[in-house]
Amino acid sequence: MTVNGKSYERLVEARMMLADFLRGELDLTGTHLGCEHGVCGACTILLNGEAVRSCLLLAVQADGAELLTVEGLAQGNELHPLQKAFHERHALQCGFCTPGFLMTAFAFLKETPNPTEAQVREAISGNLCRCTGYLPIVQAILQAASEPGEISSKSVSTPPARRL
Amino acid sequence: MPLMNLRLARPKVIIDINRLSKLSSISAGPNGGLVIGALTRQRAIERSATVKERNPLLAAAMPLIAHFQIRNRGTIGGSLAHADPAAELPAVSVILGAEFVLQSARGERVVRAEDFFVDIMTTAIKPDELLTEIRIPGWRPGLGWAIDEVSRRRGDFAMVGVAALVQIDANESCQEARIALFGVGAKPVRVPRAEGMLRGKAPDQKTLLEIAKSVSDELDPDSDVHASAEYRKEVGGVLTRRALEKALLRAREGKK
Question: Can you tell me the distance from the alpha carbon of A67 to that of A70, in angstroms, rounded to the nearest whole number?
Answer without folding.
Answer: 10
